[in-house]
Structure formats: C-alpha cells, structure tokens
Amino acid sequence: MERRKTHMSLRDKALAVRENAYAPYSNFKVGAALTTEAGETYVGCNVENVAYPEGTCAEAGAIAAMIASGESRLTEVYVVADAPLPVSPCGGCRQKLIEFGAGDVVVTMATVDGVEQKMTLSELMPGAFTEEHLENT
Ligand code: THU
Question: Out of 59, 76, 131, 135, which one is annotated catalytic?
Fold first, then answer.
C-alpha cells in the first residue's frame, strides 16, 4: 500500500490551526506555524480567557509545541489573521521568537486574503535584550 504525506505549506498549516483559535473576546483569530532545524513544523493559535491578560498568542502556542517536542531552534515563522494588513507579532512574542531563532530568521506576516509581508527577526526586534546582556552574572 502506498502511503503519502499530504504536502501542506507553512501558510496552509497556519490557516488550518487558525480555525481552532479560541478568541471569543477579541474575535481576532490568529494562526502561527514554524519550522525547525530538524525540518519539523509546529503550530499554534491564540487562546483567550475571560480574565483578558491571561490569553496567549498564536506564536507562543507554536513555540510551546516546539519545546514540548524537544526542539528549540526555529528557522521560519508564518503568522496569519483576518486583518486589513498583515498581522504583526506583539512585542512579547518578538522577544519569545528571538529566544529560539537567529536574527536572519524570516517571519512572514499575512492576511487570510493572501497579502504577505516578510521581515527578519532582527528587523522585528532591533536591539533585543539577549543572553549576551547576562554575561556578567
Ligand atoms: N494575537 C496573536 O495571537 N498573535 C499576534 O501576532 C497578534 C495578536 C492575538 C492576541 C489576542 O488573542 C488577539 O490576537 C487580539 O489581540
């Protein structure tokens, strides 16, 4: 019997996981997909809470899935939402992404309509606080 793995792009995976987002308070569903050095893909969606600050972003979910699977270096990120312009990772998520990705990692920000904008992590997070700052500790 022939077995085939259906090929889904990073965008397809981000769009698919976005459907599962739990966003009853903002009505803003976000999907994120990332690839790793090992060539795996991990996905996440935003998960809100009635206590609003307790919600988590799609990017944080994808990072948590990667770490839970034993990987820690990401090589590409795709984020998508139904927005008038490509969805931009929040400041907290930029810090989370830079923890696990090199400055030249490309983050594709997208709308469900297919508009895309690409920026590297160092463009998204210039002057980031990094491990280097802790070197005197
Ligand atoms: N959100 C994400 O999940 N990722 C982003 O890149 C931008 C914002 C979520 C947080 C919240 O659940 C909703 O979108 C509205 O801010």
Answer: 59
